What does this fold into?
Amino acid sequence: MIALDQVTKTYPGDVKALKGISLQIKKGEFVFVVGQSGSGKTTLFKLLLKEMEPTSGTIYINNKNLGRLRRRRVPKLRRGIGVVFQDFRLLKDRNVYENIAFAQQVVGAPNRLIKKNVMAMLKLVGLPDKAKSYPNELSGGEQQRVALARALVNNPPLLLADEPTGNLDPKNSWEIMKLLEAINMRGTTVVVVTHNKEIVEKMQKRVITMSEGVIISDERKGGYIYE
Ligand SMILES: Nc1ncnc2c1ncn2[C@@H]1O[C@H](COP(=O)(O)OP(=O)(O)OP(=O)(O)O)[C@@H](O)[C@H]1O
It folds into this structure.
């Protein structure tokens, strides 16, 4: 599903964020990416979304070489990747229903189908009664659930989560992780960047550890090793 071959990224000012990353993530995997601040995790996500180009090396998603992907094909690539962030990024002036429906309207789904899909997603994330609430009426954990519902409503085969529990307390963090695990069980490949040591150790999933732009370990059922 994802393959990187000797990928480097140097930012202006000669900042070497990635210094030669090679890795493979298969369809259906659940993977944590951990590492100190500045080790290149967010850079990796931006490359996968083709928000920028690597300085060298090749990235494949579903056997497609992103470097060869035409600009007009990029929206389709991004529709196949659900993304959630630490700060939720919900539209504050839209209610929960509208926040999730928006992703479906963009792909031109008919209204009846949108309604069905949005309600199914709200059920999946455990918020079937919150369709009419606005983001500021929800707790952080609930907002992250809505963000997850939005990320998944178009049924992407891949979900990238960048510090999804960074703003949550331990209880909500754990619930979000369990939800990510359930989503993974339904077949979605899940890649989670996190600093949450306790969760990584508890979940016993594959752990890729980055340090200063390189992968320093890749454990099948790993714990949290850096520090
Ligand atoms: N647009 C940019 N221009 C220059 N340097 C950048 C840019 N974006 C990131 N960097 C640098 O690249 C390195 C990797 O950054 P990146 O954001 O990928 O790290 P990270 O592992 O995601 O960190 P964190 O855990 O704090 O989010 C850092 O040294 C950072 O300062």
